[in-house]
Amino acid sequence: MRIINAAGLPIGDTENPELIAVPREGIPEVIDTPHALEDAALALEKGTTPLALDVERAQGFRYGTNPYLVQIRREGVGTFLIDTAALPDLTRLSTAVSDLWILHDATQDLPNLRQSGLKPTTLFDTAIAAKLLGYERFGLAAVCEQVLGLSLIKDHQASDWSLRPLPKDWLRYAALDVELLSELYRQLALALDQCGRWEWALEENAHLLSVPPPSPKPDRWRSLSGAGKIRSQRGLAVLQGLWQVREEIAQRIDIAPGRLVRNAALIKAAMNPPRNRRALQAISEFRSPVARQYAPEWMRAIVHARHLNEEELPALKPPRPPGAIPEARLWTRIDPDAAARLAAVREAMLAVSHRIGIAPEVILEPRIQRYLAWAPLDSSRLFKDTLEERMHDQGARNWQIELSLDAITQALTH
Fold first, then answer.
1. In what order do the strands lie in the sheet with 51-57?
2. Same domain (yes/no): 25, 123
3. For residue range 22-64, what is the model confidence (pLDDT) as tens digits?
4. Is 388 domain-assigned?
């Protein structure tokens, strides 16, 4: 299908998307001085159209998820590429970017933008809009192809954005990431309005702004791939110690932990703890030019774990926090009735999904579905009211409750 796009963009074709390889105004210069940032703020303040934003990180290369480049585009003003390694504080732009923000999959970028001193007041997430319209592919390039009939080059998504100077090709890629967002917003907003789902999007975006950033999970070392192979508490203590040391070193030298020592090497060392430095460096990962510099720290962690008292050792399985709901895969064994209720809830959500063309997990988060099914409710005239209260308490939005409450009530009372 041919798509008439605005803002000087080409006519699109959803069956044969046209590749957008160069930004309309060319590749902008990187803003890396306070003077250039001031000029950008003054330019952005003159515009009134919504703002398209994106962030580039160096995950897999540097420690953490710090932003290294922030892209901002305002139609009629232009695109700005801001080096947040050189300019970590962007509060000078606060007034200039106080209008509607357009982001794609905003949960990825909002923490970084807030870290840089920028806070949105209103937001439109194009990935959320695509889900509410029933699209099955949610990546930016895929949504642009389906909605605008235009295709984006996605060749530097996983690059090391801490590199300086940034190559010209990377800057082109970064500018293109915000090139189509404004038109994407326009087309998606029209589609949402036409099918009566605009209010749903407003609720979803407001919810997105209200959710605090997630706290780090406790005992993250337990989630390493292969940790389940370790059958002894002493081995788990070694793994915990090595993981903690790796985190400390990685943060100190600003490198991604997996580039210092891969998870598989930590698991190997924990399953058969080395008795000395030579045995440690028999594991190839620990004799790399970087990792071998820290051999004393690795060995101290192993020796410390070896000498822990029995009561100090980590449990083979982490204790479940009070009130926490078990993993659904265990329900059939530990509570067959709850498993049957969950199956009924899922079946009800599938029926709603087929009726309106949206994935069940978009209509109601699986976490909330599990919560509703786990604890039984008395079959009474207040059943539906209590169920609705539970949904509200767990963060379900009004549109989600309106769509799913009757179906779940019927599923759990029959």
1. 30-31, 78-83, 67-74, 51-57, 101-103, 123-125
2. yes
3. 999 999 999 999 999 999 999 999 999 999 999 999 999 999 9
4. yes
Alpha helices per DSSP H over 12-156: 34-45, 106-115, 126-132, 140-147
Q: Measured between alpha carbons, how far is 263 from 242 in angstroms, rounded to an integer?
A: 10
178, 52 Cβ separation under 8 angstroms = yes
- CA 70 distance to own-chain centroid: 17
Q: Are 291 and 260 a contacting pair, CB within 8 Å?
A: yes
Q: Do residues 155 and 173 make contact, with C-beta atoms less than 8 angstroms apart?
A: yes
Model's pTM, two decimal places?
0.93
- The reply to whether 99 and 159 lie within a common domain is yes
Q: Are residues 75 and 170 in the same domain?
A: yes
The average confidence (pLDDT) of the chain is 95
Return the sign of the alpha-carbon dihedral for residues 229, 231, 236, 242.
negative
Q: Which residues pair with 103 in a beta bridge?
A: 125
**pLDDT (0 to 100) of residue 214:** 79
Check whether residue 55 and residue 143 sit in a common domain: yes
Residue-wise DSSP of 100-111: -EEESSHHHHHH
pLDDT of residue 218: 83
* pLDDT surpassing 90 at residue 378: no
- Answer yes or no: is 25 within a domain: yes
Task: Quote the number of domains for the chain.
Answer: 3
Q: Average pLDDT in the 362-368 region?
A: 97
Query: Residue 403: is its pLDDT beyond 90?
Result: yes
